Structure formats: C-alpha cells, structure tokens
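Morning run. Coffee first, then this:
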Amino acid sequence: MIPPKAAIRAEAEALFAAFRAAGAVPVEADILLPAETLLDLYGEDIRARAYVTNDPLRGEMVLRPDFTVPVVQAHMAHGADPARYCYLGEVFRKQDTRGPRASEYLQVGFELFDRTAPEAADAEVFALFAGLLAPLGLRAATGDIGILMAAVRGLSTSERRKQALLRHIWRPKRFRQLLDRFSGRAPLPQARVQLLDRLAADTPEALIEAAGSFVGLRSPSDIAARAAALIEDAATPALAAPEAALLYDLLSLQAPARAALAHLSGITPMLPAIAPAVDRFAARLDALQGRGIDTVALPFEASHGRTSLEYYDGFVFSFHAADAALPPVASGGRYDALTGVLGQGQSIPAVGGVIRPGLVARLKGSLA
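And here it is:
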C-alpha cells in the first residue's frame, strides 16, 4: 500500500527533527541547479535519469537529483568545520513508474564534516541511522570502496591500466571485463586485434591520410595519440598472477565485518597497498562497537556500493527491507575526494547519508 503524502511528510519531519537533535544545522538547496558540475560528479546512472532543461540566461539546468553535492558546495564556500547539516526536500530522477521507485520523492539527509576522526564520524552516522530505523527490522549492508581503490592503485601495472580500472569501479561488469583482460583471463576483443594489426602495418598518420576525407571531432593528433596508447597498452604485460588472484578474492569478499577484517589482515602482506585502508576499517569497527553496533554480526561486502553514487570513496552503507524489489530505505557513505573537487584545492573528510521517508511510512503501514 502506498501511504498518503501526509503520512510521508510526517515521517520526514520526524526524521528531520531527529537529525536536528543530533546537532545538525538545517540547510536548504535550490530545486533547479546548474547541470554541468552536478552531472559530472554524480556518475553515469544519475546522469541518465536526471531531468535536464535549458534556461536562456543560466544555460543547462537540472532538477535536484540529490542534496549532497549542493550541500558540499555550500560548505566548502562558506562553512567552518566540524559541521553537521540536515535537510528535507524533494529529489527528482527519471524512473520506470511501473516499478516501486518514484520519479519525485522526499529525501531526508544528514552530512558530517570532520577532519579530526573520520572513522569515528563514520560510526556516528551509521549508528544514528541504525537507531532511527531499528523499529523497521531492516537488513544492514556495509562496504568500503577505499579498500578496493587502494588495491587497484597498488597493482604492478601501467598507470593507464590502473586509471582504467579506477574509472570503472562503479560499473562492476565493465570493471570485471577489464580485469579479465588485463590479467590474461580473457583474450583481446577481435575488433581490437584487427585494429592493432592495422596500426602495426603503418604509422597512424599514414593510415589517417589513406582513409581519405576526415570526419569527426577528434583532430589527427588526438587520433595518433590514441593509437599510440593502444599500442602501448597491448605491449603491457599481464597482471602478475598472485596480484590478480588477490584482486578477484577481494571482489568476492562477503563476510561478517570482524571476519572480513581478519581475512583482509591476512592478505595485506601480499597486497601491502591496502594496509592503510585496512587500518581505517579496523578503527571504524572499533568506533562502531563503541556505539553499540555488533560488528561481529554486521554484514560486510568489499564490493558493496559499486552501483551507487560515484563520489563515494570509502565507507558505504545501506539499509534494506525484506522486499528485495524495493530500493534501499537508507544509504550513505564517505566522499572525501568530492570535497576536494568542489573546494578548489581545499578538502575535508566528510560522510553522510539519506533516508526515504516514503519507504519508512510504507513499511510502518505494513507493520501496523
């Protein structure tokens, strides 16, 4: 049963009041926002579902798909840290309205900016959400994208290949295809083989000239540089088998958090680049335990969050109803790098999350 708007608004106001009671300062964000910066930051999924329009004076604009980016923009321009913010309002995303996801819905959120103890901040946000949602009996899920990113950055391969993997971390299928190819588990696509054979036959400049009329936006120098990159990549040795095996192992890691920490600690000597991220994971679990979270039973998945917002770069979490067709009731994570992008060289560790009051009202109705 879909609850009436009044019931949804009541749940939203109650959650908003709880965030204010936790020390958050209420903030507003415009509904119509400049599209360029936002759509570059949100990633492929939201770009495809954003409502975009053109203003004769302001250029391309977008209906607010999320609060975090405009809140971060405002904080980096005017805020002092540490800071806690909360917000309540509609967000807009194109959806298949025949399913359980609405195109316009209320979102209530909490954001924490604190450079002194990031792991404690992670624990504070997660525990706050867990407490507010406890009556619903939801299933929690956690992960840490920072561990996977650290593992990729530490690979013994070319910088070009590492950047390709990092760029596709949020696209699991494409990431797996690249990893299979870079590790030698999958052959080069036939089209790539044929292209490399042609490039080996002559210089890119000669091939461009032989092709006749020039069509497209890329200049000949751009095409030549791309051809050189393809040739260089083809000559790059495959990932060392032990490194590749460890990365595959990391992608498949699903375990209670303390067991996952033990496993990660065990493979760290063989993949030393992840050591700082694993240390942060351990500190976060201790902070969570200190806030009453059972970290022995808390689910952890190293790949969790890889299909969500692309600005997450560390701890990620979500809360789910028993009905798997429903979207997450709540989700959030750490986005330190985003503050650097929007802060024009200045950055601050930050973590936050959102709750869908419409789903809270719906689930409470089913429990009544």
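The two ends are 12 Å apart (CA to CA). Good start to the day.
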